[in-house]
Amino acid sequence: MLASFASPPESRFWLSSSGDIVFHSVLSACDDVDYLPHSHPEYNFTFCLTRFACVVGGVRINLGSGEAVVTHPGELHGDVHGGGPSPGGLTMVISVRAMNQAIRSMGDRTYPKAFTARFPSTLHADRYMPLVHRLTEEMERRPAGCDIMIDSLARQLLAYLLRDHPPHLCASPGGLSRRLPFRHMVRTLEYMSACAKSDFNLAQLCRTIGLSSSLFIQLFKRSSDGLSPAAYFNRLVMAKARRLLRTTDWPVKNVAYELGFQNDSHFCRVFHASFGMSPGAFRESTVREMVCAPQPEPPIPPGPCAQRLVVRDDRRLTALAKMGSSRDTSTLAAAILKGPVMPSANAGRLVAARRHSLELIAGGNRP
């Protein structure tokens, strides 16, 4: 069975000639593309090379190297952004038709005429990782004969999965094929993630995907739990807004411009309509949650004043940084030793103040 790489972006996809098997590299996608809840008409097996977090069926799943997560046809899922380095992995996408043919070819039981397979949500995939690494290498390097090699490795990987994790078979619910295929959904999300608020163009998106507007909207709504492309895009923009407000100290005006709003007033109205509070109020509530959240205590250096140290980690200091203004780190150090920290300074000054306090404690001094 001959196959080919998709284009664009050709470095991320490999498609079989029939389109029944797709490989998608996720080595860097999750830092620049948001994957809010959506579904596909195919089976997805994502093999983790480093780390991965996702939500499948409303349940958060944290995975490490050598593990895999399975999403079934029509099952809502999405990625979780933790703000760290990009997750790494490879997703194998298999159509219902190809999966049913593979299951029947195992030949170890009697099968109903129409069925779907249910796998465990997570799999121990250490045994398959050599195959995953070889597949990834073939996709990245594309040496001569890579199509034949990837097709062979794909069949081996699927056979191992079915042999080691026999699925539970149930009656087919039908209607799953009338959803946006995996590769079209990924390209849609890539397009949306690259768009500013004022740049989203449905007609251009449909031309990129290669579908008519009416068919695209119909399939997309079935894949996104009833949301239209415009409504999904707005949620995507607001998810970015929350992340920027939570992880940066940018003024609200800068966040609005980064997201493509013409002015911050429009941004504030849209944000309030989505979350019931202003961007400033959301940021303040996030800061309070960080300050109040219990944190593990680091070792306290020896000294007569060690027991007076109240602020115990840089994360809490970073949160407090957004709540006030003071430039005197010695004064802040004294406040730290005397009792609860008053709102003060920016993150850099607070961290410096904490270090200054620790030095004072270690030396047995008190400001």
Overview of the structural elements:
The chain is of the alpha+beta class and 367 residues long. It has 3 domains: 3-176, Jelly Rolls (Sandwich), CATH 2.60.120.10; 195-288, Arc Repressor Mutant, subunit A (Orthogonal Bundle); 306-362, no CATH class. The chain is 45% helix and 15% strand. The chain has helices at 29-32, 96-106, 129-141, 146-164, 182-194, 202-209, 213-223, 229-247, 252-258, 264-275, 279-292, 314-320, 329-338, 347-362; strands at residues 3-5, 13-16, 21-25, 43-48, 51-56, 59-64, 67-71, 77-79, 89-94, 115-118, 122-124, 168-171. Strands 1-2-3-9-4-7-11 form a 7-stranded antiparallel beta sheet. Helix 3 (129-141) packs antiparallel against helix 4 (146-164), helix 9 packs across helix 10 and helix 11 packs antiparallel against helix 12 (314-320). The longest helix is centred in the middle third of the chain and has 19 residues, at 146-164. The termini are far apart. The model is unreliable at 1-11, 299-351 and 353-367 (pLDDT under 50).
- The structure class reads alpha+beta
Radius of gyration, whole Å: 25 Å
| Shape, principal axes of CA atoms | globular
The N- and C-terminal alpha carbons lie at a distance of 76 Å
Could you name the CATH homologous superfamily of the largest domain?
Jelly Rolls
The strands making up the biggest β-sheet line up spatially as: 1-2-3-9-4-7-11
Give a quick account of the main beta sheet: strands, pairing sense, barrel closure: 7 strands, antiparallel
The count of helical stretches stands at 14
Number of strands: 12
The CATH class designation of the largest domain is Mainly Beta
How large a portion of the residues is in β-strands, by DSSP E? 5-15%
CATH architecture of the largest domain: Sandwich
Question: How many structural domains in the coordinates?
Answer: 3
- What are the secondary-structure elements, in order, as H or E? EEEHEEEEEEHEEHHEHHHHHHHHHH
Helix content: 40-55%
Query: What's the CATH topology name of the largest domain?
Result: Jelly Rolls
Q: Round the mean pLDDT to the nearest integer and report it.
A: 77
